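I am writing to request your help with a piece of structural work I have in hand. What I wish to show you is a protein chain and, alongside it, a tokenised description of its three-dimensional fold. Could you please explain, in whatever detail you think fit, how the structure tokens follow from the sequence? You will find the record immediately after this paragraph.
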Amino acid sequence: MGGTALPDCSAEVREALAAGRAVVALESTIISHGMPYPQNVATALQVEGEVRAHGAVPATIAVVDGRLKAGLSRAEIESLGRAGPSVSKLSRRDLPLAVAAGQTGATTVAATMIIAALAGIRVFATGGIGGVHRGAGESFDISADLLELARTPVAVVCAGVKSILDIRLTLEVLETHGVPVVGYGTDRLPAFFARDSGFGVDARLDTPAQIARALQAQWAMGLRGGMVIANPVPEAHALPRAVIDAAIEAALADAAVQGITGKAVTPFLLARVNELTGGNSLAANIALILNNARLAAAVAGELTRLGG
């Protein structure tokens, strides 16, 4: 056996890639694990609409019946949304097992990057990246997203690092692996629901064209890996850090009492934080994903103009 299993691209995505048009990858764990039904399906379709409205073609990514897919049908998005957390959550290590078993699964940031790169898609919009979990000194719980950013050439537009994580240690790991962290219009790293994590970024870039030129320079030099494009949540939907920090501490305590570990931690914490903030965090989550989709479409468009 040999060769590479290339993703099945939808007709829309396949035609856009063949014509050299802008395409933006979108992950599917946001649909299955990121928020409840029916908001998850409505948000996924709205995000695709934002990408199209800003001149690019959306490619929502998942594994369906053992096939890598770049560009889901509305029925497939609906199916993932209805199934929710019962759908397998797939990262790098899970992909070959899911494909071999003919399974359906939603892709994390890491797995989405892999499938996007195989399809020839260079820009990916998501909510927030995974990272080093709090207490990782004992648990060694570090997201595979960070290593994927170090080796797969896909730019990830996000609202920074998820605020439930240890942001300082996450930045240390990204630095060690040579992953640039760029702030879009900001010198401060956003923390998902909050616009300022208390940490800085490696560089501030103020236009999609500047970001595209930086990406082109990175890949032209043969430097492996992607880039974190940190895009703050819109100010109208941002939550105060003190409110989020208090909710996260309470959610972490609940997770510990219930013995929740591994892949289940992030979805549990996000859902619990949403409860503790009276639904405000879900509204912020939706707003930031749409905001990231708009920026990703603009960056993808600039990158195609540069021939990247």
